[in-house]
Amino acid sequence: MSKSTVGADPGESPVTPDEQDLGAAGSQLSTAPVDTLASGPALGVVGWTRWFWRQLTSMRVALLLLLLLALGAIPGSLIPQSGTDETKVAEFRQAHGTLAPVYDRLGLFHVYSSVWFSAIYILLFVSLIGCIVPRTWQFVGQLRSRPPGAPKRLTRLPAYTTWRTDAEPEQVREAALTLLRKRRFRAHLSGDAVAAEKGYLREVGNLSFHIALIVMLVAFACGQLYKSEGNKLVVEGDGFSNTLTQYNDFKSGNLFGTDDLNPFSFTLDKFTGTYETSGPNKGTARTFQSVITYSVGAYGKDKKAVVKVNHPLEIDDSKIYLTAHGYAPVITVRDGKGNVVYRDAVPLLPLDSNITSSGVIKVLDGYRDAKGVDEQLGISAFFLPTYTEGSEAASTFPALRNPVLNLTPYHGDLGVDSGIPQSVYQLDKSHMKEFKDSKGAQLRDNLEPGETMTLPNGAGSVTYEGTKEWANFQVTQQPASGWALGGAITAIFGLAGSLFLQRRRVWVRAVKGDDGVTVVEMGGLGRSESAKVPEELGDLAGILYDQAPSTPDPDTPASPAPHASPASSEPEAVPAEGAEK
């Protein structure tokens, strides 16, 4: 017998002509809309509009758009993005002079805000809403209505069984009604039969899955538009206030404003790092943590907190992450007359896993040489937390076991007054002169804590006072992240419910036969071809059979308890008239 699909979800069993003859009883056990992709549109603008809307809101197109969204996100992961790292984008443009203009036209340097990605995103959003709204309305109607009455010929159902009993039809129907309700079926009397249905949570899971997708799309969009992310390097004893000018670098979404920053401040009291001291993992970090004192608002009380790696401090919807660590030697610079012109802890950037570090000390104002001439000092610094003879180029351990600071001083013009921005970690030597030692070589010296480098010709001195530690904090503010997590969890449970729950219908008919003996018929119908429907019907039939046992014919032995079987095979016990074999 040929079969044809009528409005079935992917994976749903096709509907046969026999099942179509069942009427309302054989109607779809889901809210999936009828597939109209194969049908052509009616003439006219209205007809084409309806046809386009049906295609857009079909589940097939929604899955296609979801696939396109996933494919469109791939360039955003492989190509540097202008909103994330402008430096890498500039390097890519310089290295790929031919390819960069093509990427610009395609919007590949800003994928997630490009026109084509936004179009896919919006179409997917509209498609899901257009698919969910009618299905939800239809499902609400199904919940408010009763299960459909029994079809005229139960033998056409996929699972069927029958027997004869001396019990009255009313007693059988009442027992069946009680049994089905006890098994959490929605059941009611309909004429000479009991109609029952179960498994509505399947459709609830299906709708929950799609609604959760919409929630996730909205949450991701809000998170991108209103997010902010900034980094701040803080030395022990120093503080930070959550204002835009305090950040070392800052980026945000298109709709984020400075007024959206949460008002708080904190001070880094102490940073503690411990490392493996032996074995193959020697030097590997064991613990990184920062003890901070923070307050919320202008008049908030001070509170203590410990920020660890992957354990951020949450203040309102801001999260403060500990992302990096290094050392900041405390440097004191004196001029030719012995006056202190600079004293500060200078953060140096790590170069390797043992925190070999480098950086620059810049003395911009107040310095005068031995002749009283105003100059600027620039000092290149190279720091080894654990210095070992024979390994002068790098530290042998990340902790402060034997710290040594190598200094190379210069004097002249640092170029900071030219109006051209420059990094605090780099030294422009184009207008600087080297200091020479007594042998005429460039002045360079290794200092231990407490030691002083004397500049030649009475130009002053540089003292290495000691070492502080610094920590880099990343402050993120991404609203709707909780909604995104809730949507993801709901989607998982909804998908599980739609995959593992079965929606099915059961009918029990009890009528008097021509010989005055009650004929009991039971039939079951499921959304998909599953062995659970015959098994469940057989279980119900066995319980009902115990309450209304069969009456054997006078010339035949008593028949065994019935069990449900597929309609294509001969049912156990005596079939009703017209049952197929």
Automatic annotation (TrEMBL):
Question: What UniProt keywords apply to this chain's record, in alphabetical order?
Answer: Cytochrome c-type biogenesis, Membrane, Transmembrane, Transmembrane helix
Low complexity composition bias: residue spans? 561-581
Q: Spell out the Pro residues composition-biased ranges.
A: 551-560
**Protein name per UniProt:** Cytochrome c biogenesis protein
Which regions span the lipid bilayer?
A: 61-79, 115-137, 207-226, 482-501
Q: Does the keyword Aminoacyl-tRNA synthetase apply?
A: no
Organism in which the protein naturally occurs: Streptomyces rishiriensis
Annotated membrane topology is: Multi-pass membrane protein
Chain ranges of the ResB-like domain: 59-537
Q: Which InterPro entries match?
A: Cyt_c_bgen_Ccs1/CcsB/ResB, ResB-like_domain
Among PANTHER family, the record links this protein to:
CYTOCHROME C BIOGENESIS PROTEIN CCS1, CHLOROPLASTIC
This protein's source sits in the domain of life called Bacteria
| Region Disordered, annotated ranges | 1-25, 530-581
